[in-house]
Amino acid sequence: MSIQSFFPPRRVLMGPGPSDISPQVLQAMSRPTIGHLDPLFINMMDEVKSLLKYAFQTQNEFTIAVSAPGSAGMEACFVNLIEPGDKVIVCRNGVFGERMRENVLRVGGEAVLVDDEWGKPVSVDKVEQAFADHPDCKLLAFVHAETSTGALSDAQALGALAKRHSALTIVDTVTSLGGVPLKVDEWQLDAVYSGSQKCLSCVPGLSPVTFSPAAIEKIQSRSTPIQSWFLDQSLVLGYWSGDGKRSYHHTAPVNSLYALHESLVLLQNEGLENAWQRHKAMHNKLKQGLESLGFEFVVDEAYRLPQLNAVYVPQGIDEAKVRSELLNVFNLEIGAGLGSLAGKAWRIGLMGYGASEQNVALCLKALEEKIK
Ligand SMILES: *Cc1c(COP(=O)(O)O)cnc(C)c1O
């Protein structure tokens, strides 16, 4: 047997993630591996923490990258904050809200569901009602940017509402971080997780998380142990915390963290506000082009994500066939519809480095050719 090295083609990634990665980030990843307890590496980890604090707009001391994809960041929030018997309001307006419900059940919590239609944001009024009906709810969990539909929810209003009811929030910002305004401290969010491969345009496999002092207090006052050893953040803290001595917890994905560091440096150099602006501007260009091709958006403009554009597939078009032609002819990946939108919609991502004029133009040209 003689299997050869793998050389992937250069695709343009305009799906729901992973997104296009800057050559600078890929180069950073190929730099020499050093030990994860090497003082130089520890110093770089501290810089990653500072850069993540900027990206999340937080002063939270506990701001790190979980060494696993967004789903692990999600699980880290749920296993650490919830104890068996805790009642949690879970907002479900797409695929990822449903995953939150499963996480609550698996840690022995009780989920109080607030359902909204796919493509709509979480209804703040319904959440208010849920708190009124269940005053013993200690937590509110919601997705800021639903990647399955492209809907943005009002994290600021939901954060304020939770605080009025003395509840902590668990917030999914996997697709929002770096793409739309997100202000963890100002909005009083408590346990917030994200992913490296969406609007940060880094390689997949890392999950930035941040915990507020109130979230840390909740973890420290638990009466039951955290079920997961790997995701027990009180153990992980000893690995990521700055004061002199660091204790071995697991081996950090050294080269992936170089990549995250580089992608966050690029974000810092561009400026967070400018990055948000760029996503919006590229969305407007894509929207103009798509609408002139006759496409209709799934999500109303008032709460549409610029970085995830869900559009209905035109009548009479074989959606899977067109997607595979885009991939094979144009090296262009767009996303299929998920759940109730499967077979009916495409999801076109404009995330991070991929939110560019060049990508917008390629996508419009390819779609025009394939649907006419
Ligand atoms: C992609 C995504 C996740 C999961 O992230 P993985 O890195 O695929 O585990 C969770 N939530 C949302 C909103 C996402 O878009």
From TrEMBL:
<protein>
    <submittedName>
        <fullName>Aminotransferase class V-fold PLP-dependent enzyme</fullName>
    </submittedName>
</protein>
<dbReference type="InterPro" id="IPR015421">
    <property type="entry name" value="PyrdxlP-dep_Trfase_major"/>
</dbReference>
<keyword id="KW-0808">Transferase</keyword>
<feature type="domain" description="Aminotransferase class V">
    <location>
        <begin position="33"/>
        <end position="337"/>
    </location>
</feature>
<feature type="modified residue" description="N6-(pyridoxal phosphate)lysine">
    <location>
        <position position="198"/>
    </location>
</feature>
<dbReference type="GO" id="GO:0019265">
    <property type="term" value="P:glycine biosynthetic process, by transamination of glyoxylate"/>
</dbReference>
<dbReference type="InterPro" id="IPR015422">
    <property type="entry name" value="PyrdxlP-dep_Trfase_small"/>
</dbReference>
<dbReference type="InterPro" id="IPR015424">
    <property type="entry name" value="PyrdxlP-dep_Trfase"/>
</dbReference>
<dbReference type="InterPro" id="IPR024169">
    <property type="entry name" value="SP_NH2Trfase/AEP_transaminase"/>
</dbReference>
<dbReference type="GO" id="GO:0008453">
    <property type="term" value="F:alanine-glyoxylate transaminase activity"/>
</dbReference>
<dbReference type="GO" id="GO:0004760">
    <property type="term" value="F:L-serine-pyruvate transaminase activity"/>
</dbReference>
<keyword id="KW-0663">Pyridoxal phosphate</keyword>
<dbReference type="InterPro" id="IPR020578">
    <property type="entry name" value="Aminotrans_V_PyrdxlP_BS"/>
</dbReference>
<dbReference type="Pfam" id="PF00266">
    <property type="entry name" value="Aminotran_5"/>
</dbReference>
<dbReference type="InterPro" id="IPR000192">
    <property type="entry name" value="Aminotrans_V_dom"/>
</dbReference>
<comment type="similarity">
    <text>Belongs to the class-V pyridoxal-phosphate-dependent aminotransferase family.</text>
</comment>
<feature type="binding site">
    <location>
        <position position="347"/>
    </location>
    <ligand>
        <name>substrate</name>
    </ligand>
</feature>
<keyword id="KW-0032">Aminotransferase</keyword>
